[in-house]
Every structure is written in structure tokens, then in C-alpha cells.
Amino acid sequence: MGRVIVIGSINEDITVTVDRLPRPGETLSGTSLTHRLGGKGANQSAAAAHAGAQSLFIGRVGADQSGAAIRAELSSHGVDVSHLLVDDDTTTGIAMIAVSASGENTIILDAGANGRVTAEQAREAVEPSPGDVVVLQGEIGAEVNERVIRWAHRAGARIVFNIAPAYRVAPEVLALVDCVVVNETEAGIVLGRPAPQDTDSALDAADGLVGLGPRSALVTLGGHGAAWSDGDRSEHVPALELGPVVDTTGAGDAAVGALAAALAAGSDFPGAVRAGVRAGSTAVLAEGAAASYAGIEPLQAP
């Protein structure tokens, strides 16, 4: 069984609950305020650990109270944080999140120490093996992602690239990636065309993403599940209705982390997608991002 090696972002999530999301210029009263672990990289490494993988996180925090708190919280999820570095002259990344009564959310990011993550840091931390899965996101620098992708590919590791926030990636870089993961909006940005609006257009978008170079693509569709393609086959996997939706904040990251864990455990891609969809469907049942992952079931090696 391989490891899941996540190079990416870690934040303190400051979340307020509101009856509905505010309109531009509008002030609303919130009903609760929480401070929790967040950041797409940290969330995905936590989800991978809950799904049963040996999960290692490479990133940076500031030398502040927030950094110490979220480092301890990430470790409590079973993630190896020995390569989570502390920068003395910057602050920990912050995400300010509003969550509505229906579970929808808006997020504003301040990268902080996440802007200091480098490819050299990853190379000094670990040497991937062919059984490992390296996971990246758009919350660290594009140049850093490109250099890590080339390094991980040379080592023979599989690469899962969650291009979120989305940006256009050179085809020669995408050709080194095993799986690209995006949501509907991000799929439109990466492809340079309107975002998919239904299952059929999501399947077409997944095919289009594979056409850019990666071996496979997954388009997450929120409450509608996900659409995937490997160039030869494509499929829509519906979300599971496991209970009332409480908070959608960490669902996409849960799906990415569980998908990576399943690949590291030896699952084929369709099976890994199903594991990711199940994890995302589980994460919406509780508040928070990583805080909602306790219900994710550990995977069994095939």
C-alpha cells in the first residue's frame, strides 16, 4: 500500500453561520463563529488519513498561535506533520467562510505562509515511490506545482492535481498528471469554455479535460455526485443521500483525499471515484471541513 503525499495549503478556517449568504453590500448577523483547521491541502491529507492511507503533509504555517493550533489539529487526524515547516516572519493562512442554513458557503482566502511553500521543500522532505500518490492543489504557486509534478513524475509516483482555485495549465504539464480533479466552475476555467450545467455536459467536460493531457479527469458536481473520464470510458456517479446536509465546505476535499487513498491502496480509477464520492457525501453531514471527516470509512485494499 502506497502513501498519500500532499504538498499544499493549510489554513485556519474562521467560519460564521448565517441564515442565508449575503448579497453585495449587505450586512447580516451570524449565529455562531468557529476556528478550525482548513486549507485544501490539509483537508485532503486529513481525508486520506481517515480513509486509511498513510498520509504525509508538506506545507508551511506562521510562527503564531493559529499555526501551532492547526498543526496539532492536523496531527490529531493521523497525518504525519513532521515536514510542516514554521516561518518566523509571516502569518498562517486564513480562510474566512460564511455558511448558510442550507449548507452552501462562500470563502475568502489570505494565503499567508502558504505562499512560501517550495518544490525544494518537497524534495528535501521525501522521495516518492511508484506506489505513492502525490496530491497538489491550486492554493500554492503555479510554478511550484509544475516543478513538483515533474519531480513526482520522474520518481514514478502517481499525481492527483486538484486545480482549485483554477487556472490554465500547460498541456505538457498536464500530460504528466494521472488525474485532474475540478468542480463545474473550475472545469470551465481550465477548458476555456462555459462551465457544465448538467450531467451530460459534465461528462463532456471530463472528456475534454482528458484531451488536455492527463490520464483521467474527475468533475465534482456537489449534490449531484461526480463525472469522470479516462479517455476510453466515462461515467456519472451520483452522490449518496446519507442524511441532512449540514455544511458543504469540505466535501470536495474529502472526495480528493479519499480518491487518493483508494489509488494508493491499489484501487482502479472507477473504484477510487466511488470512494471519493462516498467520502464527499459523508462530509456534508457535519460542520466544518476536516472536522467533518470522522465518518469517512477506512478503505480496504482490493
Automatic annotation (TrEMBL):
Pfam families: PfkB. It comes from the Bacteria. Its EC number is 2.7.1.15. GO terms for molecular function: ATP binding; metal ion binding; ribokinase activity. Its cofactor is Mg(2+). Keywords: ATP-binding, Carbohydrate metabolism, Cytoplasm, Kinase, Magnesium, Metal-binding, Nucleotide-binding, Potassium, Transferase. Pathway: Carbohydrate metabolism; D-ribose degradation; D-ribose 5-phosphate from beta-D-ribopyranose: step 2/2. The active site is at residue 253. It is found in: Cytoplasm. Activated by a monovalent cation that binds near, but not in, the active site. The most likely occupant of the site in vivo is potassium. Ion binding induces a conformational change that may alter substrate affinity. Substrate binds at residues 11-13, 39-43, 139, 253. The keyword Glycoprotein does not apply. It catalyses: D-ribose + ATP = D-ribose 5-phosphate + ADP + H(+). GO terms for biological process: D-ribose catabolic process. InterPro entries: Carboh/pur_kinase_PfkB_CS (IPR002173), PfkB_dom (IPR011611), Ribo/fructo_kinase (IPR002139), Ribokinase (IPR011877), Ribokinase-like (IPR029056). GO terms for cellular component: cytosol. HAMAP family: Ribokinase. This is Ribokinase. It comes from Propionibacterium acidifaciens F0233.
